[in-house]
UniProtKB/TrEMBL annotation:
Source organism of this protein record: Oceanimonas doudoroffii
A Gene Ontology molecular function term of the record: protein-transporting ATPase activity
Name of the protein: Protein translocase subunit SecD
GO CC annotations, alphabetized: plasma membrane
HAMAP family, A to Z: SecD_B
Domain of life, source organism: Bacteria
GO BP field: intracellular protein transmembrane transport; protein targeting; protein transport by the Sec complex
Topology class, membrane: Multi-pass membrane protein
Residue spans crossing the bilayer: 7-25, 455-474, 481-502, 508-530, 551-573, 579-607
Matching SUPFAM superfamilies: Multidrug efflux transporter AcrB transmembrane domain
Domain Protein translocase subunit SecDF P1: 229-288
Principal location: membrane
Keyword match Cell membrane: yes
Length: 617
């Protein structure tokens, strides 16, 4: 019989709409102003911290809606933003510097919806607000690192060629190598010049010493700066991905600056800590010649440096760096056989080869893991810019038991939280050069709220106009199309709420408004085809059947071409364009489902298989 669906098709339509509605429902419950408290540098947030924060808020007469520990963080909800702002200052003062207190908007989704993984739609920076950072790359430090590596390379190459030298050191922005005779100096220049074509070599003689001086060429300087900037951009993008921020903006500005925009970020302090941290590792040999008493007094052998471990003890390490964090390709935290925190390290091929070659020749010697971090300095520079101070700490000293390869582990970490934080930074990559945040803006949602309201009004007005037209012009079939239109909106919102990383931006709202207009096109084509079939003398059931069958090809062709355009926009576009393209693609698929499958199911249910004398179309 014509125009009858099997039961499974009706159940499929009901299931799709029900699931979409459940995942779209959290958007109806709004958000609560909240504070998010997390530990700094691995400090645990315990129940005692919760009680302490609640007590201070109660004593100040600030009403708390709820407070709970979630994912090793404390989330305190308030009834209004005034209490939230007052509470932030109070909680931050009460808990001290060991904890980071950040403003937050916490979804007030019911627990039963959270249990199935439903959550509100993520809004972009233009709608919800967020954080804007302007970061500056320390190019001087980037050049210093390259210079230090050049010193190490020169020492290695000269030793391999058995060319004796008095010293190799950084001087005046270049590398100075001192020899005792001219003949050795000339051989060294010839050898090093062939190996280092991007360096400019000159002679520098003083008294009875003969030196060669090497500086980077202009092209090499430009390449180092460009590499430092581009690598930092890549690494910051990786760190943003680790934070789970949807549709971030990370792009260069000028010769040494990077713009980072994090829409809807909940923990701004955590974002600032992760993005700005220049944490990396260095592996060095312990200098066994050093005397403990002399080291404590600050006296170290030539070619070595004095460090301290986490207990404040002096540790003397050789200046030569075996390996740096640049060769780390993966890092994850875990527990060792004694249930102590550790970080498992995986190196790239060159790093693995270097570690294997070195440890093969130094079995039985002690190797130290040095944690290096750059923090804001206490005083600005002469030109008024913020400065950075370098902090280094020995976190692990272990005896090399056997030849190491591309995978090994480091221990000596205080807590599991610190191990996870270190693994995150190493996994996302060590910054090539330190960066400092020279400008930070928290963009409030006031403008975004206006955009949301205007966008919603546009959708409502467009929806009402379409609903009114369809109801008057196509009568009962118009009502069917209107129900399909509402289902289409529910599916779009539900799918975008379900998809990880999907974010609603202002262009996304434009995509939904466009979809509202496009979604009725298919129904118009079908309904007009049904009218044509009725005018040609077909029976009502034949007209309905032929209307859907013959319009299907036209609808498919039109939507496929639009879908291909959306794919191209997504492939070549940036943040806002991608948001529009994603919304458009989801809207096209939803409109085809509701217009072809959804309305057909409803039409079949209401009119299919019945003897009708007249059709309200």
């Amino acid at each position: 019989m014509l125009n009858r669906y099997p039961l499974w098709k009706y159940l499929m339509v009901i299931l799709v709409i029900t699931i979409s509605f459940l995942y779209a429902a959290p958007n109806l419950f709004g958000e609560d102003p909240a504070l998010q408290v997390s530990g700094s540098r691995g400090t645990q947030v315990s129940a005692e911290v919760l009680v302490k924060a609640q007590s201070s808020l109660n004593q100040a007469g600030i009403e708390v809606k709820s407070a709970a520990l979630e994912n090793d963080q404390l989330l305190i909800r308030f009834r209004n933003t005034d209490d939230q702002l007052r509470g932030k200052d109070l909680v931050a003062e009460t808990l001290g510097d060991d904890y980071v207190t950040a403003l937050n908007l916490a979804p007030s989704t019911p627990a039963w919806l959270e249990a199935i993984g439903a959550g509100p739609l993520k809004l972009g920076l233009d709608l919800r607000g967020g954080v804007h950072f302007l970061m500056e790359v320390d190019m001087a430090e980037a050049l210093n690192r390259v210079q230090e590596q050049t010193v190490q390379d020169f020492r290695t190459e000269l030793r391999q060629e058995r060319l004796r030298y008095s010293g190799v050191l950084s001087r005046d922005g270049g590398t100075l190598v001192v020899f005792r005779d001219v003949e050795t100096r000339d051989k060294a220049i010839s050898h090093l010049r062939n190996r280092n074509t991007d360096l400019v070599f000159t002679t520098r003689d003083t008294g009875d010493s003969y030196g060669l001086f090497a500086v980077m060429s202009e092209q090499r300087l430009k390449e180092v700066k460009e590499y430092a900037l581009q690598q930092n951009i890549t690494i910051i993008r990786n760190r943003v991905n680790e934070l789970g921020v949807a549709e971030p903006l990370v792009q260069r500005q000028g010769a040494d600056r990077i713009v980072v925009q994090l829409p809807g970020i909940q923990d701004t302090a955590r974002a600032k800590e992760i993005l700005g941290a220049t944490a990396t590792l260095e592996f060095r040999l312990v200098d066994e010649r050093a005397d403990a008493a002399a080291a404590a007094a600050g006296r170290v052998p030539p070619g070595s440096e004095l460090f301290t471990d986490r207990d404040g003890r002096a540790v003397v390490l050789q200046k030569r760096v075996i390996l740096t964090g640049e060769h780390i390709v993966d890092a994850n935290s875990g527990m060792d056989e004694f249930s102590r925190p550790q970080v498992n390290i995986s190196l790239d091929a060159p790093g693995g080869s270097r570690m294997a070659d070195f440890t093969k020749d130094n079995v039985g010697r002690a190797m130290a893991t040095v944690f290096t971090e750059y923090k804001p300095g206490d005083k600005p520079s002469a030109d008024g810019k913020p400065t950075l101070r370098k902090e280094q700490e020995v976190i692990n000293v272990a005896t090399i038991q056997s030849r190491l390869g591309r995978s090994f582990r480091i221990t000596g970490i205080d807590s599991m939280a610190e191990a996870q934080n270190l693994a995150l930074l190493l996994r996302a990559g060590a910054l090539i050069a330190p960066i400092q945040i020279v400008e930070e803006r928290t963009i409030g949602p006031s403008l975004g709220q206006q955009n949301v309201e205007n966008g919603l009004l546009a959708m409502i007005y467009g929806l009402l106009a379409v609903v009114l037209f369809m109801s008057i012009y196509y009568r009962k079939f118009g009502l069917v199309a209107n129900l399909a239109l509402l289902a289409n909106l529910v599916i779009i919102i539900g799918v975008m709420s379900m998809v990880p990383g999907a974010t609603m931006t202002l262009p996304g709202i434009a995509g939904i408004v466009l979809t509202i207009g496009m979604s009725v096109d298919a129904n118009v084509l079908i309904f007009e085809r049904i009218r044509e079939e009725l005018r040609d003398g077909r029976s009502i059931q034949q007209a309905i059947h032929m209307g859907y069958e013959k319009a299907f090809g036209t609808i498919t062709d039109a939507n496929i071409t639009t879908f291909i355009t959306a794919i191209i926009l997504f492939a070549v576009g940036t943040g806002p364009i991608k948001g529009f393209a994603v919304t458009l693609m989801i809207g096209i698929l939803a409109s085809m489902f509701t217009a072809i499958v959804g309305t057909r199911a409803l039409v079949n249910l209401l009119w299919g298989g019945k003897r009708l004398k007249k059709l309200s179309i």
